[in-house]
Amino acid sequence: MSNPYGHFEDPNREYVITRPDTPLPWLNFLGQDEYFALNTNTGGGYSFYKDARLRRLTRYRYNEMPYDNNGRYLFIKDGDTVWNPGWKPVKTELDSYECRHGLGYSRITSSKNGLEASVLIFVPPEENLEIWQTTLTNNSDAPKTFKLFSFVEFCLYDAQNDSTNFQRTYSIGEVEIEKNAIFHKTEYRERRDHYTMFASTRDIDGYDTSRDDFVGVHNGIHEPKAVLAGQPNNTQAFGWNPIGSHYHEITLQPGESTKHSYILAYVTVSGEKYIAPHVINKEPANAILDKYSDESAVDEAFAKLNGLWDDQLSTFQVETPCPIMNRMGNAWNQAQCMATFNLSRSASLFESGIGRGMGYRDSNQDLLGFVHMVPDKARQRILDISATQMSSGLCFHQYQPLTKKGNDEIGGGFMDDHLWLILSTTAYIRETGDVGILDEKVGYADVEEKTATLLDHLELSIRYTLENRGPHNLPLIGHADWNDCLNLNCFSTEPNESFQTASHNTAEEVAESLMIAGLFLKACLDLQGLYKFIGADAKAEETAAAHAEMLEAVETQGWDGDWYLRAFDTYKEPIGSHKNEEGKIYIESQGWLVMGGAGADNGRAEKTLDAVHEHLYTEDGCVLQQPPYQTYHLHLGEVSSYPPGYKENAGIFCHNNPWIHLALMQLGNGDRAYEYYLSVCPAAKEDKIETYRGEPYMYSQMIAGKDAATPGEAKNAGLTGTAAWTFLTISQGFAGIKPDYEGLQIDPCVPTAWPELKVTRKFRGKTFNITVQNPEGKSKGIKSLTVNGQAVEGDTIPLSSAAEENEVVAVIG
């Protein structure tokens, strides 16, 4: 069965949506620098500058009826018919509809009664604005006169205050109108340095800035009063709810087209530019409008955007026998890595932009799938993140992107956060060779003097874990580890609750995490390699000793007979054990411990991954644990609060599936890794899209597991660590292209049926055109490696001997 809602067009890197009533709104992320826009296939979404909480430009209503309520809308009144190019919000039946989601842009094209409207929406590189280039064509055989209304609803910048503090916000909204531009200047009176411009490059015939007048107090956005009346009110808002709407009266002859653009811009002015507290300086805004009033400038900006994506994606391109992997690895997976790098988990259709900023753990992981595209941005992000670690070793779990300050509402207590910094930093240095970043002084969040270097942070992170271990010599879990919902220091006094006995009347916060132990092991391996690269041999030996000590604790205390435990609770009882009635086996510790080197010499690595296959694998991916929890257990925390099969309670939490993929490939099991990869990949879900519901081009946070009432249903698409880890699955797993400190390692793990694959990889200013041949039908192991016809010993190409352009042939055998 094919997808009735759309299809991929790989040559254009576009997903073409042919029905507007998709199972859920299907989203595209626009913007790469400081201005970001969320845009759905019907024009829904919102825009913000840097910070979706503190610099929200337009309003959006979450959990509304219908979904995806509010956005960037054009209303067309053609005679008695009112319609939108994106179908919503009026939902008039269209004669044709198409939305092309591309990388950094969306183009919505629709027609009704012989009139075609096409709207190209994008954010130009390095500019704090979005453009809606609008083309209107009369395809009928008679002249057409129609009326066109634009619409955005302004947010009063602080999205939390805007959505809660109505006794204030209904009084402070201010706008100005000049020629074709509407200026939203709320906050300017407070001597802020910003305002929003919403302008048309076509001369307007009217406008509205009051929502009450344009929409009506008792009307919905699907029935705006001014549009139904066919004329604007030319209102200026004073408080209440300011909007921006331009009005055009347009006549087109048969076959005639007209083109103009709308510009929504975040404009900043320096302090000396203020004229008066209530009068905005329009010079920078007018310069923007003057520039884009020439439609050729819009075309040039769009070409620049496409060229930027061409350049960024050219760093890694792969050609395998799997079209789905090629499609995702070459375009969509990397595009999602860009979105997660920029937004962490702050703003999507499921994250409101208010409750979460940039996650410490999240952002470090997102870097892993992004660092090859724009290393300079990755470098700055690492420094920003590290500055939110405290001198104790704990980290602010989240920080606000505008201020780069830790979020006090979230605080610390997550005992895995600090270790992720080692993975991101070493990945950056392997990619770039830039060891100078280690000497950057970033300080600690709770210390005024900025004397601590980035290397100090890495060493503190190792030390903190070693100094905070529990009764089994394993890392303490604190509030939680990667699984935010596994809260094992919640105390229960219920006498017969699962995992407890009557003697458990008092408890200490001594719960331990095997997942953190695995992450620690991997961090030690990465840091040990870095120490060797910079010549710190003594520290490399210390780190190896720390790895060995933790590994011994894992193997002596953490093995359950057929798999590794997940944790010990605050009563020192095992979690993820055959002793438990529910939650006998968890996924996270199996993947991380194998990646960290556990089970390598005693057969346990293979055995634990076989247990994953037996107990956790399904055709939609591996569930998080089995069996699910049927009732709530206070001493386990939020993990048992979800119904069986959803999210952390035996849902398919997509983020942790690639950890198993990479662990399988570490052991050379390419066939099973490939089966697992396809099981969770959204582009492989098109034949069951009515069940899956999510975007086919973008990973979701979770898929309902086999114990759920709706197995196979996706939720929370967009901002998930699945993007970065799955890109590593493709690029460093199947393709096996692994940047190393002094060269490029070629270590693929492929399905045995693949005869070959090809990769283009740019690395430190040099290009490597790599062909991996598999004549013997094996999965792993380099039999021979040649570079420009010359044999290379081992599996690593020394950068020192590589040319500017290199032809590489690697043979598996």
Automatic annotation (TrEMBL):
The keyword Glycosyltransferase applies. CDD domains: GH94N_CBP_like (cd11754). Transmembrane segments: none annotated. Gene3D superfamilies: 1.50.10.10, Glycoside hydrolase, family 65, N-terminal domain, Maltose phosphorylase, domain 3, mpn423 like domain. It holds the Pfam family GH94_b-supersand. One of its GO terms (molecular function) is glycosyltransferase activity. GO terms for biological process: carbohydrate metabolic process. Signal peptide: none annotated. It comes from the Bacteria. InterPro entries: 6-hairpin_glycosidase_sf (IPR008928), 6hp_glycosidase-like_sf (IPR012341), Gal_mutarotase_sf_dom (IPR011013), GH65_N (IPR037018), GH94_catalytic (IPR033432), GH94_Enzymes (IPR052047), GH94N_CBP (IPR037825), Glyco_hydrolase_94_b-supersand (IPR010383). Residues 309-734 form the Glycosyl hydrolase 94 catalytic domain. Residues 13-294 form the Glycosyl hydrolase 94 supersandwich domain. Keywords: Glycosyltransferase, Transferase. SMART domains: CBM_X. PANTHER family: CELLOBIONIC ACID PHOSPHORYLASE, CELLOBIONIC ACID PHOSPHORYLASE-RELATED. This is Glycosyl transferase.
